[in-house]
Input
Amino acid sequence: MPPLYLCVFLLADALFAATGGLLVAVVLISKSAMTAPTIDNVAPNLLLAHAPLNSALFDAGLVFLTFIASIPGLIFTTKRVWLKVHCWMVLGCIIVTLVIGLQIWYSTLKTRANLAVMWDAEGPQMQQLLQERWKCCGYMKIPFHTDSTCPSSLAASAKPDCVGPFSDFANNFLDLVFTAMFGMVALDAILLLSGLVVLKKREEEERYRHIDEKSKYTRI
Output
């Protein structure tokens, strides 16, 4: 049975590769879900349209390349260069994932301002769907889109504006996303630490091997 430190590294490496697959799956599912807008999907579709999906795909590609780099490091136990390359690539994955997570987290600090820009950029159809979804009128009351939900200024004055429910939905949605990204960073850090432990152990093994070789040569 492999030593415990190597088992930890193998488990962390497998979970690391799984996060890359999860990223690809989430991006592909998100892009396929952005179909014709309806009351149910209009809000998540708007948020996904402004999410860093391409950056997530780049991150997933880097994860897979990093995982592949670990394979020769495990096969060639007497050579440490591949493990060193792997550890540096893991560090790169940590930086990329952390930047994406921080970008999403920072956007939650100014959710209402960002959503106001998003609301103004959308056409009457999207605004109507958002108003119907939350039974509200206008992002900040005025201006609002005249429809069956808000047929007049008098009716609009009796209903809340959309900034509250829209921003609450966006914050909950984005909180889940950046929390998942930070969780990936934590897993990457575990893989990096376990990889450094493997490197240290192999360095010690190589040192002892050289000592044994010198001892045999001295006896001869």
